[in-house]
Amino acid sequence: MSDLQQDYYEVLNLDRTASQSDIKRAFRKLAKKYHPDTNPARPNAAAKRLKEVIAAYRVLSNERERARYDVLMQASSSFSRRNEPGGSRSLDARAKSILEDLLRADGRQALATYDELASKNGFSLQAYYEVRDYLDCVFLLAEQLERTGRNREAAALYEDLYDREKEPPRHRYFFDEVKVRLKKLYSRKLPRDARSAGEEIAFYKRILEFDVDRSERAFILKKIAEVHMREGHIDKAKNIFQQALELKPGLKGTATIRERLGYDQ
What we know:
The structure is a single chain. Helix 7 (131-147) packs antiparallel against helix 8, helix 8 runs antiparallel to helix 9 (175-193) and helix 11 runs antiparallel to helix 12. The N and C termini lie far apart (71 Å). The protein has helices spanning 8-11, 20-33, 43-60, 63-82, 91-103, 107-118, 131-147, 151-165, 175-193, 197-208, 214-230, 234-247, 255-261. The radius of gyration is 27 Å and the shape is elongated. It is mostly helical.
């Protein structure tokens, strides 16, 4: 039985505002009530009920799982209302449905709603979410944008997350993962979509602003040198390529640029 087929709060006879202490007390009471040993006349029925109680407790006693469950339950309710004849939703409900749809793995619907709302003047997604839910929503949106090839928009959202989490004492929920994804976008995907050599170089230079090791820095400098070489800026290409070699003399994949710049002559 999936999370959305059963109301775990109802299983434990609790309100949705129940505290962790309330959840623990309810679980202990029901676990004792439905233990097969205390139900010799109906052991199978008691065991089945106890299994439901345990499943509900495992989710609701874990704050992160409970938050996810609450969103999914809300999403299920919103989805039903969304498909009612003549049903209408407020701007607040539509904005919040973006995260709901992303958690339901309906990225296409989430992006459709996001694009529609983002086209409105003055719309700010942050205005409709608490901080942690906003961060979750932005990360999942960026992931979906990247998945559909909208790399510039994905990078912009990842950059927003990175800026929000890079300064202490902020919690770094996504910091390390976002840095990895940004470096991948700026080194591989965005350069292919660059509108000019200058923009391509700017993408590579953004990577150098991160905390990168000597090997990574040397590789990026080589890529920048290759752009300058392609554009006919030989002196700039030589200067930057030399910096790359000083960082990593054994840098791989340099045969072509070495030949073009006259290193093997």
